[in-house]
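Morning, I've got a small favour to ask if you have a moment. You're getting the sequence in one-letter code plus the fold written as tokens. Thanks so much in advance, here it is:

===
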Amino acid sequence: MNGSFGCVGGSNCSVVYTWIVYLNNSPLLTGTSLPVSFTTSVAGTYSVVISTQCNGHDCETYTFTFKVKNPGHAIGNPLSTENNLPDNIQLIATPNPAPWLVTLHLTAPEPESGLIIWYDALGTARKHVFTAWDGSETEVETNVGDLSDGIYFVRFSGVNGSGFTKVIVYR
């Protein structure tokens, strides 16, 4: 995990950050600077709690909680086929090429959830859509009217597997 956030108190704000990473409700790591950066090493429930003070006043506390099922399975380069997840999700886009609306057909051997991410030809993420289903098949309609004409790489990265397809947006 790697991330950061800024103080909304303006340029006169003197922010002090503290954070704690919990694994299964037990403290694992602590720190006082951002970004928070760590790699999960074992399966379990992780919580990252970030507390802030601005000019000596307590601000909101932020908590991010997530479960890790398969530690060490980094996604890596989004355009690479070496993402360490089984490539067992069938992902088909229709119509292709598409002018405004694309239907993504996903097929999985078991219940699945994860992110569908659209990357442009330079590898920049342009769209993110979360989806979950009971297994078998699902469809996700996506409006591509906000994307420029071009080739897009669409990757589903889920709990149990991944899938990949290319979509051409052309008007």
